[in-house]
Design brief:
single chain; 97 residues; alpha+beta; three-stranded mixed β-sheet; two-stranded antiparallel ribbon; 2 helices; 29% helix; 16% strand; globular
Length: 97
């Protein structure tokens, strides 16, 4: 059963970090920039790291895969992981813990 979470407006969609996959709402969830044996890459062009750039884009609506105007935890991590992995040429892998 999925609990409803309060949705906050952010850009063009609402950010709803719900427990759609039983990860949120029960205990803290940590989205970590990389594996313990990896580096978290910075890009001078972005002014921050690949992880921060991907997370910002995800929360601004790029991760709204189902087009319902809400970004869930699952959608956010799916977008961040794929974007960082691609931009780092498979050298950085965000983790959900």
């Amino acid at each position: 059963m999925t609990r409803q979470a309060e949705c906050l407006p952010f850009g063009k969609c609402a950010v709803c970090l719900t427990d759609d996959n039983q990860l949120a709402g029960v205990k803290p969830v940590f989205c970590i920039a990389c594996r313990p044996n990896e580096y978290s890459y910075e890009k001078f062009l972005y002014g921050n790291g690949l992880f921060t750039q991907a997370l910002t884009k995800a929360l601004r609506g790029k991760a709204d895969y189902d087009g319902n105007g809400q970004v869930t935890l699952r959608e956010t991590f799916k977008y961040v992981h794929a974007d960082v992995k691609e931009k780092s040429h498979n050298g950085q892998h965000p983790q959900l813990a």
